[in-house]
Amino acid sequence: MSEYLYGRNAVRETLRARRRHIHKLILADNLEKSPVLDDIIKLAGQIGLRPTRWPRKKINTIARGTQGVVLQVGRYPTVELEDILDHAKKLKNDPFVLILDHIEDPHNVGAILRTAEIVGVHGVILPKQRAADITPTVVNVSAGATEHMRIVQTANLVQVLKKLKKQNVWVAGVEHAPKATFFHQANLGGAMALVIGSEGKGMSHLVQQTCDFLIKMPMQGHINSLNASVASGLALYEVWRAREFAPNQ
């Protein structure tokens, strides 16, 4: 089974990562040259792939907003939790894991994964049900960050959190609750798993109960909630800051 990825950055990072089966690179006729396009053609050539030229109108039947570049690829390669932990171990890092608790908006998921890759998250846990999958839209919004991430899809988030805790990974949930600690006052260094709740509903009850502690963002305006991707961005950067200055990092 194959799918079509679109967007120049998404296509470039997919070719750079080489984690999927690459079937075909499709370029619109009369594309203007650019550094990103040059990279795409060069990376495709390194795996023996010659671009196929299509009229832009035909490309738009696959997906709009393609920027004239489409990559036909195989399914996204998910991994197991052990692969994430082994990856962190090989880098001689404490694990840094992100868990998305039933976030359904692909634009939110894409934006979150883009930030996660930038700050050095070793892997991401997604539910199999009632959550956005790694679709071409998610790949495009993430600017191709998905292709460099190790992503687990699980039927039971709570069990995964318990496995992480057995590996001495602290689990912190982002939730605006009275018992939550302000994120800049919490100890977020070392082995850490960060849980982001769904849009509107927040974390599910069992997931929240399984967390070791909760963190929240200070708010002083009339609106008492943040977009999931904004909240996760703030929290992810705070974890990165805490880990960067931890003695063993």
How would you describe this protein?
With 249 residues, the protein is of the alpha/beta class. It has two domains: 2-74, 60s Ribosomal Protein L30, Chain: A, CATH 3.30.1330; 81-244, SPOUT methyltransferase, trefoil knot domain (Alpha/beta knot, 3-Layer(aba) Sandwich). It contains nine helices and eleven strands. The protein has helices at 8-17, 35-46, 56-59, 81-90, 106-118, 136-141, 157-166, 205-210, 228-244, and strands spanning 2-6, 22-28, 52-54, 69-74, 96-100, 123-127, 151-154, 170-174, 181-182, 192-196, 213-216. It has a seven-stranded parallel β-sheet, sandwiched between helices. Strands 1-4-2-3 form a four-stranded mixed β-sheet. Helix 1 (8-17) packs parallel to helix 2 (35-46) and helix 5 (106-118) runs parallel beside helix 9 (228-244). It is elongated and about 60 Å long.
Any descriptors?
249 residues, alpha/beta, 60s Ribosomal Protein L30, Chain: A, Alpha/beta knot, 2 domains, seven-stranded parallel sheet, four-stranded mixed sheet, 9 helices, 35% helix
